[in-house]
Amino acid sequence: MEWDAVVNAILSFFIPGVGQGINGYKQKGIILFVIFIALSVLTRFAGLGIAGTIILILLRLYAAYDAYNTY
User: Membrane-spanning residues where (predicted)?
Assistant: First the structure.
């Protein structure tokens, strides 16, 4: 059971929202995924640069933490 929480956290780190979806929090998962896609596009094409990258890393860490704790 503990390994499932770890796997969900790892999945959610690489693709934010996936771990939440697996845990049954589908709406939260969709919201995190949409935010991730929007920030990725803005970072890549709108030139957010290092600030956008830091925000993306923080989002990934939050998604992993949340997926682990909501298991």
Answer: 6-23, 30-63
DSSP 15: S
Number of domains in the chain: 1
The pTM of the full predicted model, rounded to 2 decimals, is: 0.90
Do residues 32 and 20 lie in contact, with contact meaning Cβ atoms separated by under 8 Å? yes
Q: Counting beta carbons within 10 angstroms of the beta carbon of residue 52, is it exposed (0 to 12), middle (13 to 18) or buried (19 or more)?
A: middle
Other beta carbons less than 10 A from residue 46's beta carbon: 10
User: What Cα–Cα distance (Å) separates residue 70 from each residue in 22, 29, 41?
Assistant: 10, 12, 28
